Amino acid sequence: MTTESTATETTRAWVDVDLGALVRNGAALQRYAGVPLVPMIKADAYGLGAVACARALERLDPHGFGVATVREVEELRAAGIERRIYVFSPLLPGDFAAARAARAIPTLGDPAAIAAWGQSGGGLWHLAIETGMHRAGLRWDAMADVADLVRANPPEGAFTHFHSAERNDGSWQAQEARFRDALAALPVKPTLLHAQNSGGIVRQTPSPWSFVRPGVFLYGVGAGDGAALTPEPVAHVRARVLELHDLQDGDTVSYMATWRSVGARRVATLGIGYADGYRRALGNRGPALLHGARTTVAGVVTMDMTMIDVTDVPCRTNDVVTLIGRDGTELITVEEVAIVADFMSPYEVLTGLRQRLPRLHRESVA
Ligand SMILES: *Cc1c(COP(=O)(O)O)cnc(C)c1O
To answer: Is 87 strand, coil or helix?
Structure first.
């Protein structure tokens, strides 16, 4: 199943996506939870390619998939994905016709939107119950507001979403208690109940719910301190060495001349920059792997090129450098890069990788 890559795709910089690791991460979560998965493949599978990731995850026989927009459902349908697809952002009535045409299952919490869904033709929907995040859904203590609507057009499912399960701070248990109170207050009990994201899944075995909704763990980002499981890396960001520069004492590197050679040093210019999603905040700090050895970004990251210090590692033009992921026995995790990049969210590092980097979907990545 390895996708054949063209010379152009691996010339400058790209992302190797390890589909075998993706599926093993999903299988580990499914074993631990003991219920089916609804992999979250919104935002193009956190930047790694929704269609390819969905096709690979089909091997786990998931209950369905989760996305954020109707457009994302349409893309998956056009690629032949036939399973259920839930949309986990509130739909406006203007989206309803397109959602039905794409066989999307909306998640609704606003009474007016629930009424409009019923009046415009109805169909499967899940009730979003808000238990502490105040982002989307109906407050856990306001179920009376929808009692009549729920009797008239019962939701097939109901769910909530945890705001900090990965922090081990007791918050998900409090949210779960509110969720249970809300379910008890509904006049009709929905058949499908769900609550857990990655951080929630790795802290409860077996799951008490109908299915689980993992996202970031599938893509190789761990679920915080105290997580029972650790994911395998999935995304490997590579860039080739375009040129080598031998510097003399006092020579400077990149814009603003923030890096200055002490004695004779050697830097390699990589074909990747902030326009590829390799953050400018990684200047003078970002870790890099060359032939399995660690080195560091030298100077400011520029739009299309980034320099690294290769004084201590043999390096030639065309060599492949790893900026996220594995090379030999060394690993740069997404979390490490996020911390070095001024404490970004690892979610933002992944979804921030730009389209100029081709995603190469491989069954395994050495
Ligand atoms: C994104 C999302 C998830 C997955 O969250 P992770 O932290 O990436 O596992 C689950 N449920 C909902 C409603 C989401 O929006």
So the answer is: strand
Considering 32, 86, 189, 255, which one is annotated as catalytic? 255
CA of 8 to the centre of ligand 1 (A): 34
Q: How far is the CA of 331 from the centre of ligand 1 (A)?
A: 25
Residues 299 and 333 both lie in one domain: yes
Is there a contact between 117 and 106 (Cβ–Cβ < 8 Å)?
A: yes
The verdict on 191 and 250 lying in the same domain is no
Is 42 known to be catalytic? yes
Ligand 1 atom at shortest distance from the alpha carbon of 107: 13
pLDDT tens readout for residues 6-30: 667 888 999 999 999 999 999 999 9
Full-prediction pTM beyond 0.85? yes
Task: Please indicate whether residue 196, judged by its CB atom, sits closer than 6 Å to ligand 1.
Answer: no
Angstrom distance (rounded) from CA 295 to CA 132: 43
Shared domain for 169 and 250, answered yes or no, is: no
Write out the residue range of the structural domain in which residue 349 sits. Answer: 233-362
Domain for residue 130, yes or no? yes
Task: Give dist(CA 146, CA 364) in Å, integer.
Answer: 49
For residues 169 and 246, membership in a common domain is answered with: no
